[in-house]
Amino acid sequence: MIGVTGSDSKISDRVPGLLRVTAALSWRFVAVVAALYVVFHVVGFLATIVIPTGVALLLAALLSPAVSQLTRAGIPRGLATGVVLVGGIAVVGGVLTFVITEFSKGLPDLQEQVSASLDTIRGWLKDGPLHLSDLQLQQYLDRVVETVKENQTEITSGALTTAATVGELLTGLILALFTLIFFLHDGDGIWRFLIRIVPRDVRGRADVAGRRGFASLVSYVRATALVAVVDAVGVGIGLWIVDVPLVVPLSALVFLGAFIPIVGAVITGAVAVLVALVANGPIQALIILAVLIGVMQLESHVLQPLLLGRAVKLHPLAVVLAITTGLVVGGIAGALLSVPLLAVLNSGIRSLLSESDKDVSPREVDVLEPQESGPVDTGGERVPDDGVVNQIQDALSDDTDGEGPTAEHSGRK
């Protein structure tokens, strides 16, 4: 065994304290980045399992309050779970049927308006500054047809890939539904089983942090669903007033896009503006764009602060980075799950760092109450304890004095 000699100890003592602190933080940062890299790759490899489970967890956060209310009314939990699931499936099925029916009804009108818009574009190409002839227009059209024929193999391969994706989607839906049943029926029991892997001396803190994280998820899903409804209704009214076709399908698309903050609203709003531009013209498209901007301002400055509050308030940069990471790891589903995961981690870490949560029992945290998503201390921020402050001060004083740590410093608590 090789020991540390006196000369090595003296050299170590002469290393500036700030450099020692920086080195210690650096290797810990590298370890965290490496662990995150491994986690992201594992999640990407197991995406067919992780994504349905995450979707089931989101749905459980949305439906758990209804199951809890039925249980408090005296209905057995199994029956309450069945009632909520059947009711939810009936509502979703009815809405999907209505959206598909409205899409089928509005498609002929959209085709006519698109045809008229294409005629207008063709006339502009002939009579406008380009002065293209009918022969030139036909040649361009023939090139498009030839390009499609040349890439027929790729198109067929894409269709087969789409069919495989549909099969994976159905499998994921079945897995998500199966998982959701157990989350609603025995979610608390599943959590108690999982928390046993945590060491006993910190199990209580981890339990409280996990429950606060799920409470923030419940609050986030509730608020996001309400914001999505307001977005869809606001945009739908604007589309209806301007007489844009496919009002209901576009409103449904805006509703779904609202579950991906910032990015989803921009993408679905762009689709609505594009349909208005093609079907109705530039003036109507600008009106729809103004409606979208107004709805987004209402969402960001009124609805989200009012509904989400400080407990799950996330910085826009953190949201964008989380969505980008989710897209890289899991595509659209990853973007959908990234912000809720960030909200859970935000509340859980704040709970672990909070001094006020040390004496909180897990039974005191009601995960269905939005106010339980954060620790009780004011502002949700933790003041560093004296030990951390003293360590930093010791390192800086060592650097200033040019001497190693003294016995007085090393013994300070």
Automatic annotation (TrEMBL):
InterPro entries: AI-2E-like. The keyword Transit peptide does not apply. Keywords: Cell membrane, Membrane, Transmembrane, Transmembrane helix, Transport. GO terms for biological process: transmembrane transport. PANTHER family: PERMEASE PERM-RELATED, TRANSMEMBRANE PROTEIN. It comes from Saccharothrix carnea. GO terms for cellular component: plasma membrane. It is a multi-pass membrane protein. It holds the Pfam family AI-2E_transport. Belongs to the autoinducer-2 exporter (AI-2E) (TC 2.A.86) family. Residues 361-413 are annotated as: Disordered. The chain crosses the membrane at residues 21-40, 46-67, 79-100, 159-184, 220-242, 254-279, 286-307, 319-345. It comes from the Bacteria. This is Putative PurR-regulated permease PerM. It is found in: Cell membrane.
